[in-house]
Specification:
By secondary structure, the protein is α+β, with helices and mostly antiparallel strands. The strands form two sheets. Strands 7-6-5-4-3-8 form a six-stranded mixed beta sheet. Strands 1-2 form a two-stranded antiparallel ribbon. The chain is elongated and about 95 Å long.
């Protein structure tokens, strides 16, 4: 669907007396109103601060055990190079898994820090607005200017000062009322 912009009628009639229009048009799409906005509940934010990556820990432990067994077999049978090759493969696997674990660990730390700041803000908002935890939803997992907070059935835009120690709530109306509430996962 499109709408027409800049209608210029240069002459209304041609020589035969019929209407004649010359249009300068630019086709602009309508805003897509079918997308849903994601909102997160207080419960979701509290429970998603901590992740458990047991599978990666098991893989690291298994690679470490394989490395120790391969090194001990290599030291016992120095002439057999298959244990040396196996120990090198296990060492490289251990380094690879530890590297990916460190990257995901630092990402989880950042996510946990952002989420804990958000939960602290929501707790202050609950206390100031005198509402229940179930009555508040937010459209972001990290604090940012311009994020939207839903309190009961009213929506507010949040503006923070420079160090995020104070905030103001401005009532807003949503253009798109299609909301996906992420409460439990």
């Amino acid at each position: 669907m499109c709408f027409i912009r800049n209608l210029n009628a240069t002459s209304l009639f041609n020589r035969r007396g019929r209407l004649k229009f010359k249009f300068q048009t630019a086709l602009l799409p309508f805003p897509n109103l079918s997308n849903t906005m994601k909102f997160f509940s207080h419960f979701y934010l509290e429970n998603h601060m901590y992740f458990n990556d047991y599978l990666k820990y098991v893989l690291i432990f298994a690679a470490l055990v394989i490395l120790l067994l391969a090194v001990s077999q290599y030291l016992r049978h120095r002439m057999d190079t298959k244990y040396r090759d196996l120990s090198i493969i296990a060492l490289l696997l251990l380094i690879l898994i530890c590297g990916t674990q460190y990257l995901s660990y630092s990402e989880r730390q950042n996510f946990a820090a952002d989420t804990s700041r958000m939960v602290g803000f929501l707790n202050a908002l609950i206390e100031n607005q005198k509402v229940e935890k179930q009555d508040i939803i937010v459209n972001s997992t990290r604090l940012s200017n311009g994020m939207i907070v839903g309190i009961k059935s009213q929506y507010y835009e949040v503006h923070f000062n420079q160090d995020f120690s104070a905030y103001t709530l401005t009532p807003i109306n949503l253009v798109n009322n299609n909301i996906e509430l992420i409460d439990k996962e």
